[in-house]
Amino acid sequence: MGEKRTLIITDLHGCYDECIQLLDKMAFDEENDTLINLGDTIDRGPKIYETFTFLRDLKERMGDSCILIRGNHEQMMLDAIENGGSDKDLWYYNSGGKTVYSFLHHKHRIQEFIDWYMDMPFYYETEKFNCVHASMIDPDPARNEVETLIWGRSTDYTGKIVMTGHTPYRIPLYFMGGQYGKIQEDVWTVLPETGMIALDTGCVFGNRLTGMVIRGDDTFLVTSVKSSVEK
Ligand SMILES: [Mn+2]
Description:
Elements: E1 5-9, H1 16-25, E2 34-37, H2 48-62, E3 66-68, H3 72-83, H4 85-93, H5 96-105, H6 114-118, E4 123-125, E5 130-132, H7 146-151, E6 162-164, E7 173-176, E8 179-182, E9 189-190, E10 196-198, E11 208-215, E12 219-226
Helix pairs in contact: 3-4
The structure holds manganese (II) ion.
């Protein structure tokens, strides 16, 4: 009773159906759990607007227990809308048009919700672990370049355990100083104190959507659902 859990998901890219299935599989309880999303909610996938309204309403209800971290796709969108020009070209090159269309299809413009996306932080830190979209180099999240946090692909990190998305792997992996090991799904395991747990398993590319549950006793479990996006 009263067990405090943290759920982590990432790289939804408009995969709303899989998001709901995964949260169900993890027995997500919005009254008691903390939910952390590692970014890249928009672009590429089938239900971008639905993903937005779901997360917006959830955050509205959960407040500080729902942490929505910024990914490179949210940043590209914000830069495109603020600056136009080559920033707009970069976003459209990275599937921004799909996001624009998804909002228009629901009679909205994403420009209406810029402040909501602007509120997304670049990282989230607890006593036991860090969360960022892409990568870390310095063990202090605040001392990393934003570029590293949202675009980085380095796996050399050896600081306090960090959960990441951004780079899709076939299965979730644990990295420690450039070495890696496979994470076995659906098995409770002690949370490592250092290194990096990579959770993006390329749902929007037709593979799987992976989530992580961390319990108050510092054990964790990783689980996933199959993508319904055609490869
Ligand atoms: Mn990304």
